[in-house]
Design a protein that fits this description.
By secondary structure, the protein is mainly α. It has one domain: MFS general substrate transporter like domains (Growth Hormone, Chain: A). Helices cover 82% and strands 0% of the residues. The protein contains 20 helices and no strands. The longest helix has 38 residues.
Amino acid sequence: MQEAQVTRRSSRLKVAVAGLIGTSLEFYDHFIYGAAAALVFPKIFFPQDDPKIALILSLLTYGLAFAARPLGAALFGHFGDRIGRKLILMLTLVMMGSATFLIGVLPTYASLGRWAAGLLCLLRLLQGIALGGEWGGAALMVSETAGKSDARKGFLGSMVQVAAPIGFLLANGVFALVTNAVSDEAFLAWGWRIPFLASSLLVFVGIYIRRTIDESPEFLASQKSEPQKEERAPLAEVFRHHRGKLLVAIGSRAGSDIAFYIFSLFLQIYLVRRGLPKSLALEAAVLAAFSQILGIPLFGYLSDRIGARRLLIAGSICGALWSFVFFRMVDTGIPSLVIAASMIGLFIHAALWAPLATFLPAMFPVRVRYTGAGVGFQAAGIVGGGLAPVIATTLLNVYQTSTAVALYVAIGLLITVVAVWGGSRDATVTPAPLGDSA
């Protein structure tokens, strides 16, 4: 009996680590595009436009992936709910890596004119579709392998969520290394391509690791006990029978996405506009990612003790209040305060991010879980992450004050409070008994 428990724990940890590594690589690909969209692409893909317009156009291409993510969640979720989680996770990793590599060899405006921006948009859409299918599968593999009674389910699920700041850290770290190693001219000419090309090497690592894990035991059990009804697609069933839960899923993430992109990506834009060096923006982003990496497992553990619902509400309120303090500290221009503001902001965000990998899958039955959790998670990204940099930049252009941006963050997080508080209590993850370690 004890040996069987050790084996199960080893399997759960293996799946969690595989989810962490594979999803980190996908987020690395996602975030190197974000860094390039803020610092490089306006100059090499939209050089004919006014600099402010070029930046907005570049950020809109960044947001394209968020529009494509729900499509990826629905597409890969359909097959993930029908044929299994493991194979789909392999496919999403290959698709993401291929699109990222092709961006790294893409001709710029100087060679292809407007066609270069068009191809950039196409590849960005493919990135979004791949990442849209990735998160749901990775979260489900960990959640379903852990089982309903595991007292560490929230903590294990948070391993998938750690992938986002690790990918962010890797992306910004690589960009920082390249920008420090070459001149500004060389960086614009060819240096920006290095982070994209390096992705192809990382993908092979992720594929090798994911090959070693087993299919989700809950999915296999569901296939035996509840044969799929071929006439009803998982997406149709989600919209027909689980619309309320889908809205709760969207609301529970939307505000946290706004907070994340303001405290991280928009910070890079904001500091450069204020005449501060872009090296400070990258340094703040890297150190803030470290604080989030520490915070997510901590809050994942806490979600097992107090419940994901309470944690999401508390984190949203703290994040809404911090948004105003954040810009007061950043507006000083003092490097230490800028860095501290970003680090604290992303640490608070960890409380919003950590519970999602267990909170969202728990809402849906196994037969439509990949689709329901994935579509809910990714649809929130359109309103939250996809539009946040553009909306924040527009607010700054119109009102000429960071208070307008802080208010935008606070409103987004209060929407999350309403969604989580007002959502069905049946859709929450119940805290595990303190003594339960099965």
